[in-house]
Amino acid sequence: MDKEQIFGQATVMDNGANYLPVELWRICLGFLGVQDICRFEMVSRCCKRIAGDKDFWKRYYCSAWRKNLHLPFTLPTPEWKAMCLDRRSHSQGHFLSTGFRGKRVRWGGPHVAYTGFEGTEELVYRVRSSIRSEDPLVPLVSASAFRGACTVYYEATIQGGGSVGIAAADDGLHAFVRHRHRYGFLSRSRPVGSLPVSYGFHGGDGRIHFHEGSAGATGSLAFDEPFGAASDATTLVGCGYDAARGLLFFTRNGRLLGVCPRGIRCLGYCAAVSLTHPGGSATFNFGSAPFAFDLELFCAQRARFLQNCENNKNENNDENNDENNDKNNDKNNRTESGGRSHSRDYVVVLFKKLPALLLVLGVLVMQYTSLFFVIYNSIAGLL
Question: Which residue stretches belong to region Disordered (predicted)?
């Protein structure tokens, strides 16, 4: 396309923008992708004004990723645009490693599906089929926009029994064998949470199992009722991690189960899922499609809660400082008043004892005077 055609399209677009209502343009833009809207902004100043409205990107985000649910907070326009671009980037291709035979599954688009126990090897040995993302989970801008939160989150729809969690990205091996050392290749019958360093929510017992790399850093925590006991049961489980505070939380069918009562190590973590039933499957959503769980509302409420805690802490510190200052002032006042009272007592005692002191002083003067005359007369007689 030459320069004249480009400028010709820009002129037609500019003229069209002048004749069509702005709201109609924004409705039409809602059917386009994020990149197409960004290209539309670069056509002319009028197009930039239409797509740069402060509420356009918010409405677009809520329509594409929140099922038109309203958000009880406001953000600047660049933040909403960045959130849309970030959620779109999560639809780019990434690799998931099954662990078995070095097979990798590529996911692109809103979801990726992986079915375990496909070959005879898995069925013969009855081993658990595990899958893990090769790259660490990236914090979502939609969660990081609130008070510096650094939250990663993904959801997995489990068909049959399974375990959902996170596993450390750095296994300490060399690069040429690291691609085969994904969670599952050496795990065999060990689900997520059984090998270092990993944390997994197990559907068989509804508990969080964890392994933090040392013998004493293993165990399980009571969390929720079991899910996926039957092979045909389908459950949507979400796993989130706040890297800034070391908080791990899980969701089930869009409902928050709770925050893990144990703080986890601050590392780079990958998504990890283990399947426990033949024919079981897992469908992943890393953010390109709408989450069943309202992650933005959760992050906003938690940020507001932490802000209130910090404000209360500052108020308590101010009250303690004021109380300490009052105590110090009272102590100083008592010290000063005590010093003045002692001084007054000394003056009163001095005045009471003054006659006696003068009498003693006079007697001493008379004695020393008489002694002086005696010595003087003795010396004069000798001369």
Answer: 311-340
